[in-house]
Design goal:
Layout lengths: L1 H37 L2 H86 L16 E11 L7 E2 L2 E2 L12 E2 L2 E5 L10 E4 L3 E7 L8 E6 L2 H7 L2 E7 L1
Parallel strand pairs: 1-8, 5-7
Antiparallel strand pairs: 1-9, 2-3, 4-5, 5-8, 6-7, 6-9
């Protein structure tokens, strides 16, 4: 009996000790749990890994943004280059068009001048001027008249031109010469002296009527001379004209 009592006391003491130890540990864990969690190496490592992961994400996002901006810059430069090339191409095409139009205009102008020259040559070839030979013995049909005489030049600036050439009313080219078959050329009123008539002009010699003029009316004869100085020197004078 004594043994049983002794045994129960030992068991109760052991249980009490275990209970006290468990309670103490629980209290210690309860009091220091938060501090242990904060200082837990595994938690710190996890936080470091998370922080590094965030930094890696930020780095990748920054690289992606830089790449996007670089791509936008490249596209912008490429677009600007294409626009510059387009403008240069338009200018080149416009210049080619202008040159083609200028060449066409020059060709048309050359064609027009050639046609005018051909017409003038045709008029010259179709205009037949019959010059009556001068006889040493005056025929009864000779007629002497007194006319007012002036002078004019073959200067292109003072005459209407055809393809740059100065022609008489009968189509004779006087650009380079004031003579026709060795005779001086005069402008007349065809109603007084018929065109093609060979006459003798006092102070000049034989001349041929190949031209007319807006101010040549009646008994007026305009003598073709080389220069304006010659025309001024000739002035305005009355001369006798013998019509053969």
């Amino acid at each position: 009996m004594q043994f049983i009592k002794y045994t129960l006391m030992i068991l109760m003491t052991t249980f009490g000790i275990l209970l006290f130890t468990s309670t103490a540990d629980a209290a210690q864990i309860g009091v220091g749990t938060q501090q242990k969690i904060v200082q837990n190496p595994l938690e710190l490592e996890r936080q470091a890994i998370e922080l590094e992961r965030k930094k890696e994400i930020e780095r990748k996002e920054k690289l992606a943004e830089e790449k996007r901006l670089e791509e936008e810059r490249r596209l912008s430069e490429e677009k600007a280059k294409q626009e510059a090339e387009r403008i240069a191409e338009e200018k080149r095409q416009a210049e080619e068009k202008r040159q083609a139009e200028e060449a066409k205009r020059q060709a048309e102008e050359a064609k027009r001048l050639a046609e005018e020259k051909a017409k003038a040559e045709a008029a010259k070839s179709t205009t037949q001027v019959t010059a009556t030979p001068v006889s040493s013995t005056k025929a009864p049909s000779q007629k002497v008249i007194t006319v007012e005489s002036t002078a004019y030049t073959n200067d292109a600036g003072d005459n209407k031109t055809y393809g740059g050439r100065v022609l008489t009313a009968t189509g004779h080219d006087v650009t380079d010469s004031i003579y026709y078959k060795g005779m001086r050329i005069i402008a007349v009123d065809p109603s007084v002296i018929p065109l093609g008539s060979v006459v003798h002009v006092e102070g000049i010699g034989d001349a041929i009527a190949l031209d007319t003029g807006g101010r040549i009316r009646g008994h007026i004869v305009d003598l073709l001379v080389d220069t304006k100085r010659d025309a001024i020197n000739w002035g305005r004078r009355h001369v006798k004209v013998t019509i053969y």
